[in-house]
Write a structure and sequence with these properties.
The chain is mostly helical and about 140 residues long. The protein has helices at about 1-30, 35-45, 45-80, 90-110, 115-135. The longest helix has about 35 residues, at about 45-80.
C-alpha cells in the first residue's frame, strides 16, 4: 500500500507542476475575454489573487488527491487484479476515466470557451492517474 501512496504523491505533484503553469495561462485567457460571470468574479477578486490561490493550493491539493488515488489503486489491485488497456489494473483505470469524465462534463457545459482546455486537462489527468500511477506503483 505504501508503494501506491508514494506513486500517488509523485503523480499528484506532477499534476501540481502542470497546474501551476497551465492554471495562470487559462486564467489570463479568461480575463482577456471575460464572460459576464467572470467579470463579476473579477470585480470581487483581482486576477493576481486568483493566480496566487492557484499556485498556493496546487501542490498540497494535488498531493492529497494523488496519495488518495494511490491508496485506492493499491486496494483495487488487491481486490480486483487484472490488467488491460495498457494498465496493470483495468478496473481502476476504467473507474478513474469514468469519474474524471463525469467530473469534467459540467465544467465543459458551463465554460464553453474553454472546452478544449477542459478536455485536455481531463485527458492529462486520466493519463497521469489512470496509467502513470499504476505503472509507478508496480
Amino acid at each position: 500500500m505504501i508503494e501506491g501512496a508514494i506513486a500517488g504523491a509523485f503523480s499528484g505533484l506532477f499534476m501540481a507542476a502542470i497546474t501551476v503553469v497551465a492554471g495562470p495561462i487559462m486564467l489570463f485567457r479568461m480575463a482577456k475575454n471575460p464572460s459576464p460571470s467572470f467579470l463579476a468574479l473579477q470585480a470581487r477578486i483581482p486576477p493576481i489573487y486568483m493566480t496566487m490561490g492557484i499556485v498556493a493550493t496546487a501542490y498540497p491539493g494535488w498531493a492529497i488527491i494523488g496519495v488518495t488515488t494511490g491508496i485506492l489503486y493499491s486496494i483495487s489491485a488487491q481486490e480486483w487484479p487484472g490488467s488491460g488497456l495498457g494498465s496493470s489494473n483495468l478496473v481502476y483505470t476504467v473507474a478513474v476515466t469514468a469519474i474524471l469524465v463525469i467530473m469534467a462534463a459540467p465544467f465543459a457545459v458551463l465554460l464553453k470557451k474553454n472546452r478544449r482546455a477542459i478536455a485536455a486537462a481531463t485527458l492529462l489527468m486520466v493519463v497521469v492517474f489512470g496509467w502513470l500511477l499504476p505503472f509507478l506503483a508496480r
